[in-house]
Specification:
two-stranded antiparallel ribbon, 19 helices
Amino acid sequence: MFKLDSLHSKQQKCVDELLRIWDEMGLTVPESQQRYTAFCAHIENSCHRMLRDEEQLLADICEDITKLKSALRSLSDEMHVAVPEVNERVGKVDVLRQLGDECAKLEEVKEERLKQLRQLREQERLLCRRLKKPFIAAEDKSVPSHEFLEQLEHTINGLKEEKMSRERVAREAKAEIEMQLAELEMQASGGVETMLLRDGVDAFTLSNENMSALSRCVDELKSRSQKNFETANKLRERLQHLCQLSEAPEAEQQELLSRLTGFRPSAISAIQKEIERFEEVRRQNIEKFVTRARIELEQLWDACYIGRSERHEFLPFYAAEFNEEILKQHEDEISKMKKYRDEHAELFNKVAKREELWAQFLEFEKATSDPNRFKTRHYNPINEERERKRYQGLLPKLEKDLADLVKELEETTGRVFTMGGIPFREHLETQWAAYNEHKELEKKNRQIKKEIQTKEEMFFGSRPNTPRSLQKTRKRLHEVVNTPTSVSRKRAREDLRPVSESKVVHSSIRTPMASRRNSPQKQPPAKRQLRGIFADMKNVPTATSSPKTSTASDKEPSSSTSSYADFKRGLSDKTGVTSSCICSPTLPRTSTKRGQLRKLEFSIKNGEDLEC
C-alpha cells in the first residue's frame, strides 16, 4: 500500500541538492560529511518524533473513548435512559466519533429538560406565592426524568385550576360584598373586604386564610341582611296588623305598605316611625283593640281546634279591664297561636278535609238509604257503588295519616290534641260508633216496618202496585173516554166484556195462586156477591138504547152496560158496600183479560170517576 521507492528517490534528490549547495558553498568533504550526518540524524529524529506523536495520539484516542463511554454511561444513568449501543468493531476514531455523537444528543436532551424544569419551577413559584403555599426553591442538580416533569406539570395545572377557582370565588364575593354593603348602607370596615375592594381580584392574595376570612365576611354580611329582612317583615306585619286594627281606609293602607318597601336600615327606620304613630293611636283606643284581638284569637282557636278547657287557661281573655298589658298579652298569644298554626298546618288542613269528607259521607249514606231513589230518572247504581268505594278508601287512609300527625304533635308539644274537648282518637271512635248505631237502628226500623206490613197484608190483604207504564196508558185512555165524542164512548161500552168472577179481586181479598185459579173450589162470600153484581149487569138497560133480551148463555153477558150510578146502586143493594171500598181489579196475566178489565174501567169512569 505504501512504497518506499518513492521515499528513497525523494531523499536521494534532497541529498543531491544538498551536495550541489555544499559544492557551491565550497565546503570541504569533511564538512559536507558532517552536514550529511546531521541530515541523516535529523531525518531519523523526525521519524522517531512522528512515531511518538502518533503513538500518543492513539493513546489519547483510547483515553477519550474511555472518557466518553464513562460520560455516556453517566448521562444515561442521570437521565434514566438505557446506554446507547456503539459499534466497536470499527476503528478507534469511528468509535470516538459515535460516542461523541451520542453524548451530544444526551447533552441536548439534558439541557432541554433542565430548561423545562426551570420554567416549571418558575411557574410553581409564582403560583405558590399567589396562593400562599410553601415552595422549596432547591436547585435540582440531577437531570429530571420525563415522568418527573409530567408530574410537576400536573401539579402546576392543579395550582392553576385552584387559582382560577379562587379568583372566581373572589369575584363573586366582591360582587356580593358590594351589593350587601349597599343594602346595609355601610362602608367596608377593614380587613380582607377592604383589600379586595381596593386592590381588586388580580392583586388579591388567594391564600387559605384570606379565602376563609372572605367567606366569613360574606356570611356575616348576608346574616345582617337576613336579620334586616326578617326585622323589616316582622315590622311590616306589625304595621299591617295595626292598620287593620285602626280601621284605616283600604286605599291608605295599601299606599302606606307599598311606600315602605325594602329592608334597608332607612326603610326599617321609616317603618318603626309609622309603628310608633299607630301605637299612639292604639293607646288612645285600647278597649277597641283588645276586643278585636279577642275576636282574632277566637278565630285562631277555632282554626287550631283548641278546646274550652285550654281556652280558659288564658285568663287575660276574660279580664274585665283594658290596659296596655292586657293588649300585649293578647298579642303575644296571637303570635303564639299563629306560630302553632303554621307549624302544624298539615294536620289542621287534613282534619278539616276529613270533617268535610265525613259530612259528605253521611249525606251520601242518607241519600242511599232512601228507597225512592230507585224511582228517580237519573239513578245509576254503578255511580253509587263507585262513590261508596271512594269513601271507603279515602276515610281510612286520611284517618291513618291524621293518627301519625296527631302522635307527632302530642310528642312535640306534650299536650293531647282534642276535638270539641275530647281527644281526637275518641272523637273518631265516637263518630264511627254513632254511625254504626244509626245504621243498626235503621235496620231494626226496616225490620219492624216489614213485619207490620206483613201482618197487615196477612190480615187485610195486599194491594198490587200498578206499573208506571200502565198508569200512563190508563191516563191517556181516560182522556180519550172523557172527550165529547160519543162514538168513542159508545164503542167502549159496546166492547165491554165482563170477566169471570174468579178474576175480579176486591181490595181486601188476596189473589189466589196460579195453580189454584182453574181448580174447582168453593168461592168466598165476597166473590159470590161480585158474581151476582156482574150477572145483574146483563139486564141493565143503557142510556142510549132500548132494553134487549139476551139470547146467549150465562157465560156470554150482554155487551151493553148501565151507567156508573146504576152500577153503584146495584152494588150497594147486593153487597152493602160503598164506592170507596171498590178498587181497580188486579190485572190478569193475558192480554185479552187485561183489555177486558181496561174496558170495564173506562165504562165505570164514563159515569163518574172513582178514586182508588
